Amino acid sequence: MKPAEGKLGVMVVGLGAVTTTFMTGVLMARKGLAKPVGSMTQYDKIRVGRGENKKYLHYSDIISLASLDDLVFGSWDVYPENAYESALHAQVLNERDIEPVAEELKAIVPLKAAFDRNFASRLDGTNVKGCSTRWEMVEALRQDIRDFKARTGCNRVVVIWAASTEIYVPVDTAVHGTLAALETAMKADDRQRIAPSMCYAYAALSEQCPFIMGAPNTTVDIPAMWELAEQTKMPIAGKDFKTGQTLVKSGFAPIIGTRCLGLSGWFSTNILGNRDGLVLDEPANFHTKEVSKLSTLESILVPEEQPDLYTDYYHKVRINYYPPRNDNKEGWDNIDIFGWMGYPMQIKINFLCRDSILAAPLVLDLVLLSDAAARAGRFGTQRFLSFFLKSPMHDYTQNEVPINHLFQQYVMLKNAIREMGGYEADEEID
């Protein structure tokens, strides 16, 4: 793979709680004032080699990764506040953890966003591009990326979506089935089937930037974007950061399946008070998230594989907007299982988490590994990044089933890094 030389630009769509927590943490870590806890690329070790030749190495000792010192930040947002003001407003981090890097954060001023309020009706920002068509959005975003590269001197840029969930856009093969059809729809200003996020993805890939979808939007989950990624030889990954409840679900459901216990029902509910919670309070936006969160369990506990254990179980997911909690999300899971001779049991999990604290290291890892994948010549859907994502991309046109099992995803992650580092992939997914 090509070495990680020079500066790596990180252009984030959305300068809200997740983004400012990520940026502040990186800037603080550079100064030795904080630790990037939760980041696999900064802490995890992988075995390479076997027998007497085996050793456990950090990712950066296996493949060439950009260092934290080489990251340069940019952003788009519908609100004009700079990263410092936005970090204070988000109320995720204490002021004492923001002030040491205040000047660096103040220098990160968001570009005007490509935005359509019909896709996020609860947001009403003024820092919005005056584009009259979807194609104009694409061209304006491409120019933003070119200008950012010229201004910062970055020779590589990764674009990642950390903005709000858009309303659900069903896949329509007439528009989303081919790249030509997608481009025609953009030029015809199809505002119903072309979401603003699709304009960001198209612009990023066209400017030779890997693109990562951190929300459950349909954006890159369409054949047209797969075709563009293949054409531009760029990696794409998505969708939806795997932070709180789904992280628990993708890790705990395998316990039930591996132990051959039965499942009667799994009820998940959340309370959340940040901007994401406000947007998801709109039913049309929540439906996009619901599709993402529901898909996890169904690919781990499969009725066709164990009909005695997983036929007709009830799975419900709820998210409730509750302003007093702000970014401190609480997720409850009630799991009804059954065991020997069908006798019922219950498991209850209460996860009081900090959404942006869990998401920030995911942003870092996805950016660094997508950049590494691009330099290693990997393009198209990066399935090895499913470990970090709630509803992994997959080729549903070929009836591919996504891997949602956390520990199988971890095997995929380790093997991809081994292969990029010139080692043998030696753990198979059964």
UniProtKB/TrEMBL annotation:
GO MF annotations, alphabetized: inositol-3-phosphate synthase activity
Originating species: Alloprevotella rava F0323
A GO biological process of this protein is: phospholipid biosynthetic process
Record-stated family = Belongs to the myo-inositol 1-phosphate synthase family.
Residues covered by the Myo-inositol-1-phosphate synthase GAPDH-like domain: 244-356
Quote the protein name from its UniProt record: Myo-inositol-1-phosphate synthase GAPDH-like domain-containing protein
Q: Which domain of life is it from?
A: Bacteria
Its lineage opens with: Bacteria, Pseudomonadati, Bacteroidota, Bacteroidia, Bacteroidales
InterPro entries (alphabetical): Myo-inos-1-P_Synthase (IPR002587), Myo-inos-1-P_Synthase_GAPDH (IPR013021), NAD(P)-bd_dom_sf (IPR036291)
Q: Which Pfam families match?
A: Inos-1-P_synth, NAD_binding_5
